[in-house]
Specification:
CATH architecture of one domain: 2-Layer Sandwich
Strand content: 15-25%
Bound molecules: magnesium ion
Shape: globular
Order of helices and strands: EHEEHHEHEEHHEHEHHHHEHEEHEHHH
Distance between the termini: 19 Å
CATH topology of one domain: Dna Ligase, domain 1
Strand order of the largest sheet: 5-6-1-7-8
């Protein structure tokens, strides 16, 4: 499956500012200027803050009861999370971005990567400015856009953009990039978590520049192949694919355009089962469970037929990381939104309300759970182990359908996975 196509010349990362808080404000102009926070569904922790709330010193993830006095004292508007609303606004933002560029890879509920080929890259700054302006005018949401040679540099650029005027560009090797890498702590790089940052510090690696300049064998020994990929990306070499990208902690998204348009419900069912499977793998990799799943289907914006787009939220009875339950929920969501007579171009799922799998609260329902649930962990662990060892998709659920189904995407855009698949290692 080696591809001869070269990776995009540039990447852009579009990121909505204070997304949940901004969504709450869209229909409540009276909240402009007033601090806003959003709470998680299950445990009442702060999951989103407006700039005013951030300025009050309210931290991400803080339990509501700990800051209750502060919230009252400053007349903070407090909301429970409303994923139906955020999902809808998210779709509008994504569709708006798609109206300006050919390919949009949604990464989380409020972020999307946009690959820019050579022709588009020549106008990258113009495209970023236009996208920012159009999203603001069409949806009312303010986005920050980072442009960079690789996804990792684009992500870093977006963080800088967020703190500045909303736009930032980091070309590998440019003086500005040098400067940024030298003052960015290694732990602030996309995909380098707290534990990894600690390992790096003990090895004398402190900044993004240190990571970039680190010897390949050394970084691989410290942080595995993922760390090596990150070092390559900081050097400007495209090395991280969406499927292997570090997940955003709030939502897991798996969605993709079809290889060929689909009109039958069965094709959508299979596609959604595949996405549920992929999302389930990522969920377990990160030791998380989800409490909600959203299904999203739509036709093409560019086709001749009528446009149709719909999403459904399915709340899971218990937080789960079991692929079988995710597939079931995806099917249930599809039942709610599927309409015959359209040519579907894209389907996807989003998992939300994520919480750590271990040490979470056990509720009464869980104690009286059916026996099947007791084997969930063992079954899923065995499944993941086989797929890790023999390749993704070695063991699959029948619900995903055949490997050569027409709706499946051709991976023609994918560059070789140089560092993660042995048969695709570059030959010298
Ligand atoms: Mg954001």
């Amino acid at each position: 499956m080696r591809s001869t196509k070269s990776p995009p010349a540039l990447w852009a990362l579009v990121d909505c500012n204070n997304f949940y808080a901004s969504c709450e404000r869209l229909f409540r102009p009276d909240l402009i200027g007033r601090p806003v926070v959003v709470l998680s569904n299950n445990d009442g922790c702060i999951v989103a803050r407006s700039n005013e709330a951030k300025a009050l010193g309210i931290n991400m993830g803080e339990p509501e009861f700990k800051v209750r006095d502060l919230l009252k004292q400053h007349n903070v508007a407090v909301f429970s999370s409303n994923y139906a609303l955020y999902g809808d606004i998210s779709n509008r933002v994504m569709l708006t971005v798609e109206s300006l560029v050919p390919v949009v890879e949604q990464y989380s509920i409020d972020e999307a990567f946009v690959p820019l080929d050579a022709a588009l890259a020549a106008n990258a700054d113009e495209i970023a400015r236009a996208t920012r302006e159009r999203v603001r005018r069409w949806t009312g949401i303010v986005v920050s856009i980072g442009v960079g040679t690789t996804r990792t540099l684009a992500k870093l650029a977006s963080e800088i953009a967020k703190k500045g005027d909303g736009l930032c560009r980091l070309d590998a090797g440019s003086p500005e990039t040098e400067d940024v890498l030298a003052r960015t702590p290694a732990g602030d790089i996309w995909g380098i978590g707290r534990k990894s940052a600690l390992k790096l510090r003990m090895a004398g690696i402190y900044t993004a520049r240190d990571v970039r300049d680190c010897d390949n064998l050394k970084i691989r020994a410290l942080l595995n192949v993922n760390g090596l990929n990150t070092a390559f990306e900081l050097r400007g070499v495209h090395s991280i694919e969406m499927a292997d990208a570090p997940i955003s902690r709030r939502t897991i998204i798996s969605s993709r355009s079809f290889g060929a348009r689909a009109t039958e419900k069965e094709a959508l069912e299979e596609a959604l089962a595949m996405h549920a499977t992929l999302a389930g793998e990522r969920l377990r990799r990160e030791k998380l469970r989800a409490s909600g799943l959203a299904v999203h289907i739509r036709t093409s914006r560019h086709g001749n037929g009528p446009f149709y787009e719909q999403r459904a939220n399915v709340s899971l009875r218990l937080p789960t990381a079991d692929t079988r339950e995710l597939v079931r929920a995806a099917r249930q969501g599809l039942e709610a939104v599927f309409q015959r007579g359209y040519s579907y171009a894209k389907a996807g799922i989003m998992l939300y309300d994520l919480a750590p799998a271990e040490g979470g609260q056990t509720n009464l329902l869980e104690l009286i759970a059916p026996p099947a649930r007791l084997h969930e962990k063992e079954l899923m662990a065995a499944l993941d182990a086989v797929n890790r060892r023999f390749g993704r998709g070695t063991l699959r659920f029948a619900a995903e359908g055949k490997a050569d189904a027409a709706w499946r995407m051709q991976h023609s855009r994918r560059s070789p996975r140089w560092t993660t698949v042995w048969d695709e290692l570059p030959k010298v």
